[in-house]
Design a protein that fits this description.
The chain has 188 residues and is mostly helical. The protein is built from 8 helices and 2 strands, in the order H-H-H-H-E-E-H-H-H-H.
């Protein structure tokens, strides 16, 4: 993640205080990268979630601006927080759709953009398993969120979490195995 022309953190702080000019500059500075994250997330969901990329970005931006959470401290933190919010938007949409139609929603725990879905799982079941993993091992759960939902590389995650890339890779593999087993056992 490269440094943008504007300081995203200060623009976000000013936007939260109602500065419309800062909000416009923030939108311009981050829209492209947020769109890429949203597009990748929506591609993974296939037709399970009927939402346009700009709708997901706009909903996440609105939630981010209204968030009571402490503002992010750096660019990488901003995009990680945005990815988490997008994840919540998708989960809310999946829950709503499942409640309305009682249909299964499938996702793939694969970080490659456009990769084939060869391990379908229910989005709500994934979220449930992820919450259980977070209770057991919050660090591994965070890596899953950043990599799967945020589309971050192992290098970006290692920098953000101040750890080595090999630790991130090991934790990712272990978390994926744990989630797969947890989701398979939920189906029994």
């Amino acid at each position: 993640m490269t440094k943008g022309p504007e300081d995203i953190v200060s623009l976000l702080a000013a936007s939260r205080k109602g500065d419309d000019a800062a909000r416009a500059r923030l939108d311009e500075a981050v829209y492209g990268e947020l769109s890429a994250i949203a597009s990748a997330l929506l591609r993974r969901e296939g037709r399970a979630i009927s939402m346009a990329t700009h709708d997901l970005v706009n909903e996440a931006a609105l939630r981010l601006l209204q968030s009571a959470e402490a503002p992010p401290e750096e660019r990488a933190h901003f995009f990680a927080l945005s990815a988490r919010i997008m994840r919540n938007v998708l989960i809310d949409a999946a829950r709503k759709r499942a409640a309305e139609k009682r249909r299964k929603i499938t996702v793939t725990l694969n970080t490659e953009h456009g990769a084939p879905q060869n391990n379908p799982m229910e989005l709500v079941a994934l979220e449930s398993a992820l919450m259980r993993l977070k209770a057991i091992d919050p660090d591994r759960a965070e890596i899953v969120v950043l990599r799967y939902y945020g589309g971050m590389t192992t290098e970006d995650i290692a920098l953000l979490l101040d750890t080595s890339e090999s630790t991130v890779k090991r934790s990712w593999r272990a978390a994926c195995a744990w989630l797969k087993e947890a989701m398979e056992n939920d189906g029994l």
